[in-house]
Write a structure and sequence with these properties.
Blueprint: E1 7-14, H1 32-40, E2 43-49, H2 55-64, H3 68-71, H4 87-93, E3 97-100, E4 119-120, E5 151-155, H5 167-180, E6 188-197, E7 201-204, H6 207-210, H7 231-240, H8 247-277, E8 284-289, H9 311-314, E9 315-316, E10 318-321, E11 331-338, H10 341-350, H11 364-368, E12 378-382, H12 407-410, E13 422-426, E14 430-435, E15 441-444, H13 462-479
Parallel strand pairs: 1-6, 1-8, 2-11, 3-4, 3-6, 5-7
Antiparallel strand pairs: 2-9, 2-10, 8-10, 12-13, 13-14, 14-15
């Protein structure tokens, strides 16, 4: 196997939290396909972290191996420009047949897809069901407590197909068809950036009924007075109007989100089955990872924020199955890893020499069980400087009006200190967040895994805070810029 390049699958759900996995011990999670892979052939990373907690900056990061600060990718509207590296384009230039089925959120719409993939998939028969983002009927009264909840619940599936016939199903089945009919003379890369479990929280049976709401773990409680927490969280909580929700309603919302993950697990299983039946399983590397997480009721919030780094947002699932010929010790691995490590691992597996400087590290030594450590800390960042008004994202349609589903968060991105630039440094034991225009955060994760008690001002921990600041200084020094691999003529 090592003498030829393997096929690559990048199965990339949107907004899947890192704790919604059965093999991580979550009794409410229904993920038999992923659980089976980790038991037999894959490694699941318990402590995998994204580099930004919203879609576009995170995707720009894991497609380049760069942290968001390296080239200013901190908003939903600053995507990869033509001069920047991009993993899919590299794979295509290296001889891969690249098939892209799903959302974008990484390259500008004006760029087109020609450089990045051989096929940007569109099904011959369009889906029959609408994305819940495209209508407001499920939101209820604009003055009510469901208007910003993102909660829809159980969907009516299409009797002819047996499922809710949306774009995720169309893209997954397109990928399955590609594998079943593949006769190409090149290795293929399938990139599936899917829409779920990004809210609205909505899913059809049988997935809805697969999840027992009584087995879903309780949410992190709403802070009693928000002391020590970022002002953005307090502001979003006030505007989302969910403070009077009962625990029964929260449990139902969380059950629906868990069921969305169950549906994705099933869809991945269809792709795995196609790879096995087609004889491609041993010659394929499979990566399953999300771009960031979701509050799902934790702290009394839903959806996500752009510059806070609670584990429910910054910790993501990352499961890797290497191709035959590479040593693997299937298990749950506790090492600290980052999504910037994904492109580095793809390059290692495929034998591609990096064309640009990046900051990812190959996961192969961890996958093989040769070591249990890769990094001493992981990092996540977001927000803006006071004068960066172009980072407010007010170019969304109706973003400044209360009609917009995202208004509670996006409206606060016009405010400082709520939208302050911030960066997280997280070790196994501590999480430190440096916030530019308001108080810092420091949590002892062993004693306070829910990050409820901010100890940044505790004089007994001044040495810990100083050490975390020193680690951040080293991080920025190491990753502050990149030098091109080619040279300019001086005369």
């Amino acid at each position: 196997m090592k003498g030829s390049r393997p096929n690559i699958i990048l199965f990339n759900p949107d907004q899947w939290r890192g704790d919604i996995l059965g093999h991580m011990g979550n009794l409410g999670a229904v993920t038999p396909v992923l659980d089976g892979l980790v038991r037999d052939s894959a490694v699941s990373f318990r402590n995998a972290f994204c580099q930004n907690t919203v879609c576009t900056p995170s995707r720009c990061s894991f497609m380049t191996g760069w942290y968001p600060h390296v080239n200013g990718h901190r908003t939903m509207y600053h995507m990869l420009r033509s001069h920047e590296p991009m993993l899919l384009r590299t794979l295509r230039q290296e001889g891969y047949f690249v098939w892209w089925g799903g959302k974008n959120d990484v390259i500008p719409a004006e760029s087109g897809y020609a450089e990045f993939c051989d096929v940007k998939y569109s099904p011959e028969t369009l889906p029959t069901k609408k994305d819940p983002h495209s209508w407001d009927g499920w939101r209820g009264d604009p003055q009510g407590d469901n208007w910003y909840s993102f909660y829809l619940g159980r969907l009516e599936h299409d009797p002819s197909s047996g499922h809710y016939d949306d774009w995720d199903w169309a893209n997954v089945m397109g990928a399955v068809d590609l594998v079943k009919n593949w006769r190409g003379d090149r290795p293929f890369c399938i990139y599936l950036p899917l829409g779920s479990p990004h809210p609205p929280y909505a899913v059809e049976d049988p997935f809805y009924s697969m999840v027992d709401p009584l087995r879903v773990p309780p949410r992190v409680p709403t802070p009693p007075d928000w002391t020590g927490k970022p002002s953005l969280l307090r502001g979003v909580w006030s505007r989302q109007r969910l403070k009077d929700w009962t625990e029964e309603r929260w449990r139902e919302l969380r059950r629906t989100y868990y069921a969305m993950c169950a549906r994705l697990d099933h869809q991945l299983g269809l792709l795995v089955e196609a790879l096995r039946c087609g004889g491609w399983w041993d010659s394929t590397a499979l990566f399953m990872f999300s771009d960031h997480g979701d509050f799902t009721g934790d702290y009394g919030l839903v959806e996500k924020t752009q510059n806070t780094f609670e584990d429910c947002l910054s910790r993501v699932p990352l499961i890797v199955k290497s191709p035959g010929g590479f040593p693997v010790r299937p298990r749950v691995c506790d090492a600290l890893v980052e999504l910037v490590d994904v492109p580095a691992t793809v390059e290692s597996i495929s034998g591609i020499r990096p064309r640009h400087s990046h900051f990812g590290r190959s996961l192969l030594p961890l996958i093989a069980g040769e070591t249990e450590e890769l990094r001493d800390a992981v990092f996540c960042e977001g927000g803006r400087l006071r004068d960066e008004v172009y980072c407010q994202e007010f170019n969304q349609p109706d973003a400044h009006t209360e009609k917009n589903l995202y208004w509670p968060r996006v409206s606060l991105q016009a405010s400082i200190p709520e939208h302050t630039k911030a960066v997280m440094c997280r070790t196994r034991e501590w999480k430190y967040v440096r916030r530019l225009y308001e108080g810092d955060e420091l949590y002892h994760l062993g004693e306070d895994p829910q990050e409820r008690v901010n100890r940044a001002s505790d004089p007994a921990l001044a040495g810990v805070a100083s050490g975390m600041k020193e680690r951040l200084l080293t991080f920025f020094l190491e990753t502050g810029d990149v030098v091109p691999h080619d040279f300019n003529r001086r005369w």
